[in-house]
């Protein structure tokens, strides 16, 4: 079996503000739809005339006029378009949610956007520094990232070490651990660093919370529950944002895709302390037509970069994809 180190892909137009435009039902206006003429992972972004001609509506989550964006092929370009629309710097954007201005991890923008989804951008707010006493091996955090260099907290386990530190909240960007700046560090590395901190000692976190409007202030959420069934996107089709290669317009995820992606995402949290729907969707896509674990393992090795997976995790992912194919979920 060629099992061993797997490497994950690096996650890596013309806008204007629409004054006094009402947002109804959380749906975005859609321009002309066209399939991208370029396919395949590992390719450079296509020229502008080959990109999907889609228009999305967007707002800053804490309140703003409505902006319109188009012409992006990946998450970094999406943030750039939003930043240009609102005259802010792209690094100010922490993450985006779909169809809600709330810090709702069930609605987090991942690798797919429904063609009628409304995009809310959460930008940097208050900075805070907190000391945490690691009384147990597990802190109770699930980490994800925004695809553009920021790792943030997606879930806090009830009754965990971090749950007892009320200043730490779901949605907080982790900027430093014990004085070490981790901006640009992938979420799986951040999860590993936190796991390897010595037990029965204090450590320090520098965090940046998303900016909130006054009416958004509410009790801290525990974040997305791993057992929830959530469809990816709400539009009649989706724009698939890829780490490598062009964005493509696709049909809504099938029941097989939704169940398989959810199960693989759960396995990522169980084994690695992260959640990453884009990575999960990529693994499902890679394994869809593979006939055995050996073939699946080789395909993962060719497709993913910079990600070390345990062998048992690879077998479990293969099994989860097979269960979804057989409708055993």
TrEMBL record:
CDD domains assigned to the protein according to its UniProt record, in alphabetical order: GH2_GIPC, PDZ_GIPC2
Domain called PDZ: residue spans: 129-196
Region (Disordered) location: 1-44, 220-252
Domain of life: Eukaryota
Coiled coil location: none
Segments of skewed composition (Basic residues): 1-11
Gene3D superfamilies referenced in this protein's UniProt entry, alphabetically: 2.30.42.10
SUPFAM superfamilies, A to Z: PDZ domain-like
GO process terms (BP): sprouting angiogenesis
PANTHER family found in the cross-reference section: PDZ DOMAIN-CONTAINING PROTEIN GIPC2, RGS-GAIP INTERACTING PROTEIN GIPC
Family: Belongs to the GIPC family.
Protein name: GIPC PDZ domain containing family, member 2
């Amino acid at each position: 079996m060629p099992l061993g180190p797997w490497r994950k892909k690096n996650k890596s137009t013309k806008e204007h503000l629409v004054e006094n435009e009402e947002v109804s039902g959380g749906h975005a206006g859609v321009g002309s739809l066209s399939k991208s003429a370029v396919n395949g992972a590992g390719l450079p972004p296509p020229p502008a005339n080959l990109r999907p001609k889609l228009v999305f509506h967007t707002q800053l989550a804490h309140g703003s006029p409505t902006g319109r964006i188009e012409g992006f092929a990946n998450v970094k370009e999406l943030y750039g378009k939003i930043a240009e629309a609102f005259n802010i710097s792209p690094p100010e954007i922490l993450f985006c949610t779909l169809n809600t201005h709330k810090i709702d991890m069930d609605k987090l923008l991942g690798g797919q956007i429904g063609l009628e989804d409304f995009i809310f951008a959460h930008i940097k707010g208050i900075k805070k520094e907190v000391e945490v006493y690691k009384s147990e091996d597990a802190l109770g955090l699930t980490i994800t990232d925004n695809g553009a260099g920021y790792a943030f907290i997606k879930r806090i386990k009830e009754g965990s070490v971090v749950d007892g530190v009320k200043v730490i909240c779901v949605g907080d960007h982790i900027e430093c651990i014990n004085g070490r700046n981790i901006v640009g560090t992938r979420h799986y590395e951040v999860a590993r660093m936190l796991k390897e901190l010595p037990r029965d000692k204090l450590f320090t976190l520098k965090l940046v919370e998303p900016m909130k409007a006054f009416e958004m202030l509410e009790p801290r959420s525990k974040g997305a529950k791993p057992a929830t069934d959530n469809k990816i996107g709400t539009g009649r089709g989706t724009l698939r944002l890829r780490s490598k290669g062009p964005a493509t317009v696709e049909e809504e995820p099938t029941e097989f895709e939704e169940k398989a992606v959810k199960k693989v995402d759960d396995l990522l949290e169980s084994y690695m302390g992260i959640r990453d729907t884009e990575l999960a969707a990529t693994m499902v896509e890679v394994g869809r037509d593979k006939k055995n674990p050996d073939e699946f393992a080789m395909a993962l090795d060719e497709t993913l970069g910079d990600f070390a997976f345990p062998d048992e995790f690879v077998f479990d992912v293969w099994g989860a994809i097979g269960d979804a194919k057989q409708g055993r979920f």
